Amino acid sequence: MKKSFGLLFIFFLFFSFCACKEQVINSVSNSLVKPDSLKIVTQIVGASTTIPEGDGSGSVNFTVTARNATSYQILIPSDNQTLTITDKKGGMVNYIFKSNPGKIATYPIQVTAFNGSLRKDTTLSVTVLYNSKLVWSDEFDGTSLNTANWNVETGIHVNNELEMYTNTGNYTVSGGILTINCYKVNNNGTYGSYTSARINTTGKKSFKYGRVEARLKLPKGLGTWPAFWMLGDNIATVGWPKCGEIDNMEYVGADPLWVQGSLHSQSQYGNNSRNGRYQLPASNDESQWHVYGIQWDATKIAFYVDDSSSPYYTCYAPTSKTADNWPFDNSFFIILNLAFGGDWGGYKGIDTSLTTMSYQIDWVRYYSD
What pTM did the predictor assign? Predict the structure, then answer.
């Protein structure tokens, strides 16, 4: 009798253990239900029906929810970034897309809801504009040059050029366009045989790092030499080339379709400057509107045409910077001018039949990251 009771007791303990074990297993199993009903809502900051890509800040809010989830992950492959949400109810995170400055870009997104080892995935894309921060611009509205931004230079004769820069008569502002005109005066082929204009922002506006660009339409013809460029603010004390020079865009009519970006410093200037060249398509040549600019920071200066995210030439700062090899950590001012002839503009000669050459500027803008 005692033996039978002992067997029954052992059987009861075994049954109870199995039942408890099954309950534990069922409890764990029930907690690991695969997430479902995954939803993500994107809000592009500043978006509207007229500007769906946003206000240029590149800022996007992501709100994620799901059922049976304990955490969330938002993967942005193009930027190699991962955002996480640890609240099981989901929530909102913000991300700023900066990898394509100045360009409307579409970015693929992968969203995952997790419950332990179980997951639910979905994909989507977001189209957004990151335009840095527009700090300053001259859109050339009105009928006169804005003297709060610009000085008109005279008495400048460099590079054996043929033009004489004047105070008035060689530039106009009309219809949102600044036009610099170079006029032929005589056939002498010497300094003063042409008149033109040169303006700068020295003492009024200066710039350091960021994006500096202008929308330009260039003149054609042998001898023309329009430029959009910058000099160091300290030129009056240290001189050129120690102040540094950034040629955002230079063009000579002797080389149709080609534009150039250059850097000059005490250690590398003139024919020894650092420069890159870009060939415009024949179907959309220099006489068409194009945006020419630089993307500039403490490590490099990148030159581009139309698309700041695709520079045609990038010059990197030396490992050991000095005032002679990298003066580009200082502030610079902008210059716009139209030269004629000279050492580079006239290196293949000049077309003496040209009587009026026009260089047009739609706007000049400065963006700070």
Answer: 0.72
